[in-house]
Amino acid sequence: MTAPTSDESVNAPFGVIDLFAGPGGLDVAARHLGVPVVAGIEWDKDACATRVAAGLPTEPGDVRKFGPSDFPSATVLTGGPPCQTYTVAGGGAGRRDLDDTIGLAKRMAAREDVSAHLAGLDDERTGLVLEPLRWALAAIDSGNPYEAIVLEQVQAALPVWVVMRELLEAEGYSVAPPAVLHTEQFGVPQTRRRAILIARRSTEAVMPRPTHRVYRKSEERHEGDRALLPWVPMGEVLGQSRRYPFSVVSNYGTGGNPKDRGRRLSTEPSATVTGKISRNRVWHGNHTEIEMDRFSNAEAGLLQTFPADYPWAGNAIPQQIGNAIPPRLGVHVLAAALGLDDETVDRALAVTEWTAIG
Ligand SMILES: C[S@@+](CC[C@H](N)C(=O)[O-])C[C@H]1O[C@@H](n2cnc3c(N)ncnc32)[C@H](O)[C@@H]1O
User: How far is the CA of 63 from the centre of ligand 1 (A)?
Assistant: First the structure.
């Protein structure tokens, strides 16, 4: 592809190549928006099983074994690579990992061959978080730069996205300042933070604007910025299956009584959905006497805003669910990245059932 001019770009036939595609959080968002997915590259056989059941185009295998020339029709590069928890504060190993990653990113952008260095690293995630950069640079060097780049990671990866911004800007991209987005501010019934990078080739890159209020334990739902909708409580999306007020102890976070850690009521958004969600205890009301049960996979998927009938398949389903970007956040992020209009976004957000194609 040659980079479209800004006039053409809005209507350009986008096609997504999704690196580290997981069970398809971002691809579900793309499907809801009517944006074609060329392929999602994923090496975990369970996540691939779900993708295939969902009818999502899937290339099973290692992202490092492929490159842009394998997917020539793709115009949009997306990815949520696994990554270390860089602890920037206080120095130590976390800081060193971050410095190594940034140093390698700069050498890659200088077109140095760092493959031998990457192969020798103790923690292979350093190399994986740089894979989207390798793809972006390879596409530029082949004369077919991606029109849009969308990257998603845990908030600890923000400093990597900040450096990636500098490097992509030097390559001619417009890159919105990378930011940590709060999922409940996009109507997800869950608090989760994700570091997002959005780059555009031919027009200005912009971040999505929050639609809902931020969740604060000390604030009631109706309090806060009047221009935004109140955050969505988990009881609202699980209402079908759970008729009674409930609370969940996720054991998320630190401190306090471990038996009561991370308690959220059904009138609040859920805590971050992780791969351990199947261990969360669901209690009747705000009590610890009457344990009801655990969340089903479908319920965990709903908290991540997957359609209720999403065909989870293979093993380790809670892990697959916890790994994903909530499709609803994905809709907002992709729509902002591709400059799609509000009507398209509203239509995408109204989809609650999944129709597998293929
Ligand atoms: C954080 S998850 C991404 C989830 C995805 N963005 C979604 O929304 O569903 C990272 C995924 O990368 C996969 N993965 C890790 N290393 C990989 C590699 N070298 N090649 C392909 N997939 C890999 C993992 O199996 C996992 O499913």
Answer: 9
249 shares its domain with 282: yes
Q: Which of 26, 42, 59 to mutate to test the pocket of ligand 1 (most atoms within 8 A of CB)?
A: 42
Q: Are residues 261 and 149 in the same domain?
A: no
Please write the tens of the pLDDT for every residue from 26-71: 999 999 999 999 999 999 999 999 999 999 999 999 999 999 999 9
Q: What's the rounded Cα separation, in Å, for the pair 146 and 174? A: 12
Burial (0-12, 13-18, 19+ Cβ within 10 Å), 126: buried
How many structural domains compose the chain? 2
Residue 288 pLDDT: 66
Q: Which atom of ligand 1 is nearest to the CA of 327?
A: 8
Residues in the chain, total = 358
Same domain, 302 and 327: no
Cα-Cα-Cα-Cα dihedral of 226, 229, 230, 234, to 10°?
Answer: 180
For residue 154, give the amino acid letter: V
What span, in angstroms and rounded, lies between the C-alpha atoms of 9 and 228?
A: 30
| Position 11 pLDDT exceeds 60 | no
Range of the domain at 298: 234-314
Closest CA to 85 of 119, 120, 121, 123: 123
Whether residue 36 is found in the same domain as residue 171:
yes
Q: What gap in Å lies between CA 145 and CA 201, rounded to an integer?
A: 8
pLDDT in tens, 217-253: 888 888 888 999 999 999 999 877 777 888 888 776 6
Report CA(24)–ligand 1 centroid distance (Å). Answer: 10
- Is 48 inside any structural domain? yes
Q: Using a 6 Å cutoff on CB, does residue 348 contact ligand 1?
A: no
